[in-house]
Amino acid sequence: MSTARIAILLLAATAGHAAVAADYGSYRGKGGMGAYKIEPNVYEYHYDKGFTGPDATGWDPNLQFAWSRLGAAKTCGIPYDRANAVTALIRKYQQDALTHEINGIDFHAAQSKANPKFCTPERVGELKAVILEFEKGDFPTRF
């Protein structure tokens, strides 16, 4: 194989890797959710990988998962019975409706709405499936 061809293959491989690594910018997954202004790449990182450790901000990471999906459904225009979902959250995680709505769902909706590229086809597909489960009171344990 020629040197030029090897160089082209290496550049292509490096470019592909850089695109994957750049998805979350320089964020490395720790501490970003505690910032005064949460950057879209930071929110996306935790939306995709979990709100855990200090980035769960004191809440159950599985509750954060549910809140983030319900907030994203609002952002992405996926209808659901909010009152029913909040009632199911109260049964599963306690707290009051205001906590689930304001500290949870609306907070996450604001974060996802801040990113015009948030509602990808993959996220919308996942949301449509998981929202139906949430409305029935089925909340997965992922963390």
Describe this structure in words.
The protein has helices spanning 3-21, 40-49, 61-76, 82-93, 97-113, 121-135. The chain has one domain (26-135). With 143 residues, the chain is mainly alpha-helical. Residues 1-22 have low confidence and may be disordered. The chain contains six helices and no strands.
SSE topology:
Layout lengths: L2 H19 L18 H10 L11 H16 L5 H12 L3 H17 L7 H15 L8
Helix pairs in contact: 3-5, 3-6
The biggest beta sheet reads: none
C-alpha Rg (nearest Å): 18 Å
The total beta strand count reads 0
Mean pLDDT, all residues: 82
Structural class label: mainly alpha
How many structural domains does the protein architecture include?
1
Order of helices and strands: HHHHHH
Short description:
The chain is mostly helical and 143 residues long. The chain has six helices and no strands. It starts with a helix and ends in an 8-residue tail after the last helix.
